[in-house]
Amino acid sequence: MLSSSGLNNHLKAKRAMLIRKRFFALLAFFASALLVFAQTTYTLAIGVGTYPASRGVKSLNMPPKDAETFSKLMKSQGSQCAIFTSRYATRDKVLASLRAICQKAGTADRIFIYYSGHGGVGGICPYDANLAYDEIVPILTASRAQRIYIFIDACHSGSIGTSLSKASNWPGGQRTDKIVAFCASRDTENSAENALVPQGFFTQGLLKALRGKGDENGDKQLTVMEVFNFAHKELAYRSYATPNLKQHPVLLAPQSARGDVLVRY
Question: Are 221 and 185 in contact (CB under 8 A)?
Fold first, then answer.
């Protein structure tokens, strides 16, 4: 049995330990809050619906609106946004903006890149000339950004996976583990839109998810996997309801990124 003085000393020690625990918990909270406060999100949104007649490319209805809607959503999250649509989305402008954002981002920052328009195996189709994923990926890997999220609503968009795989073997040991790619279709598939739907099929599911419908556990925030799972289900429904449409979205993401929080609402 403890003496009176021993009991007092024991209680004092317990109180001191409790105070230390609370202090360190409070310190961890403020450190986390400071990190969030210091983080900047950059967004580049590109939507190409019309092309020069000389390119012989069919016009699309939704990409400019899709890019504008995505940009608006990201602005509501506090992101700094740049947007280029149709004739303003030239190859040179897209590359210059991509380089500028990737160079500006710091080690605590995030980058969101959205593209809607025509695409082919190995690249996307800005207004005046094609742009290969092999040109895009090195710009992304050279950035100091903590994480880069790229959303591609274009035919054969899953083919960016080939460039990401090659990048890890390029000279200099390119880091691709900080890149997360949401692709509207496999590398062998087309991506669809319909005038009766307000967005491209993939973008519609993506935006619904980011606005909160993809929140699986009700915690008011959307992770990489929650967004992809919802977009996948939405596209599966559209594919089932649309004759001759075979479109399967693809997620290319390291395991460490799958729980990343993309947005909060």
Answer: no
Which SS3 state, helix, strand or coil, does residue 143 take? coil
Strand pairing of 131-132 and 261-264? unpaired
Amino acid at 132: A
pLDDT, greater one: 199 or 14: 199
- Mean pLDDT score, 154-174: 81
Report the C-alpha gap between 88 and 63 in whole angstroms.
Answer: 13
Q: How confident is the model at residue 249 (pLDDT cuts 50, 70, 90)?
A: very high
Q: Do 153 and 189 meet the contact criterion of CB atoms below 8 Å apart?
A: no
User: What confidence tens digit (pLDDT) does each residue in 20-36 have?
Assistant: 666 555 555 544 444 44
Q: Are the C-beta atoms of 211 and 204 separated by less than 8 Å? A: no
Query: Domains of the chain: which residue ranges?
Result: 1-38, 40-264
| Residue 122 CB neighbours (<10 A) | 16
What single string gives the DSSP state of each residue in 69-134? HHHHHHHHTT-EEEEEEGGG--HHHHHHHHHHHHHH--TT-EEEEEEES-EETTEE--SSS-EEHH
Tokens representing residue 224 in the block: 């990489």
Q: How far apart are CA 112 and CA 40, in angstroms?
A: 11
40-264 has CATH 3.40.50.1460 classification: yes
CA 136/CA 126 separation, integer angstroms:
13
The Cα 71–Cα 110 span in angstroms is: 15
Q: Are 109 and 41 in contact (CB under 8 A)?
A: yes
E-strand stretches of 143-257: 147-153, 179-183, 221-223, 250-252
